[in-house]
Amino acid sequence: MANVSVYNMEGKEVGTMELNDAVFGVEINDHLVHLAVVRQLANKRQGTQKAKTRSEVSGGGRKPWRQKGTGHARQGSTRSPQWTGGGVVFAPVPRDYEIKMNKKERRLALKSALTSRVQENKLIVLDDLKLDEVKTKAMQAVLKNLNVSKAMVVLADNDQNVVLSARNIPDVITALPNTINVYDVLKYNTVILTKSAVASIEEVYA
């Protein structure tokens, strides 16, 4: 099992913690991690774009001029794609971009992402994270003590003082054990977990 240092909010090491290899020490599967990221970004797309084809734009019911003798190229409709105001060739239509991925694959991808953070020393465990009031400056002080900037903070419960204090800091997000995802784990330079959040993640994914 991987041993990691446990820090307090002042950035001082207060102990160590063993991480469950079933979650934080798996063999990294780069292919599944890639699929998970592509899936997540694809599923965020609305798919509501729409343009009209030549059969949907208005007008163009008659031939603009006779076939021969005008000196112009022959034309059958003013709504052809080459005309201003004409239809779009192979116009986009509303569609669903959803990509499916098996549950076991999704779980392994997340474990692989967490394992990579551990191996790169980009995972920090806090003994606890509690703020007396909603104050951005207090949350910034904690991050400064830990010497991190772009971070994903995972809490065991929805502590509003912490969530609201972190909300206004650029490049910092908060998450719960059941809302973490591969894209965010990889996007942020550091993953900060409370000890209770580690326990929750291991309970769900081990």
Give me some keywords for this one.
6 strands, Large ribosomal subunit protein uL4, alpha/beta, Ribosomal_uL4, 206 residues, ribonucleoprotein, ribosomal protein
What is shown here, in short?
The chain has 206 residues and is an alpha/beta fold. Helices cover 34% and strands 15% of the residues.
Write the layout of secondary structure elements.
Elements: E1 2-7, E2 13-19, H1 21-24, H2 30-43, H3 103-119, E3 123-126, H4 136-145, E4 151-154, H5 160-167, E5 172-175, H6 182-187, E6 190-194, H7 195-205
Parallel strand pairs: 1-3, 3-6, 4-5, 4-6
Antiparallel strand pairs: 1-2
If you compute it from the alpha carbons, what radius of gyration comes out, rounded to the nearest whole angstrom?
27 Å
Instruction: Find the structural class using helix and strand composition.
Output: alpha/beta
- For the biggest β-sheet, the strand order reads 2-1-3-6-4-5
> What's the total number of strands?
6
Order of helices and strands: EEHHHEHEHEHEH
Distance between the termini: 13 Å
Strand residue percentage: 5-15%
- How many strands, what sense, and barrel or not for the largest sheet? 6 strands, mixed
What is the molecular shape? elongated
**Average pLDDT figure:** 92
In DSSP terms (H or I, runs of 4 or more residues), the helix count works out at 7
Low-confidence stretches: none
What is the helix content?
25-40%
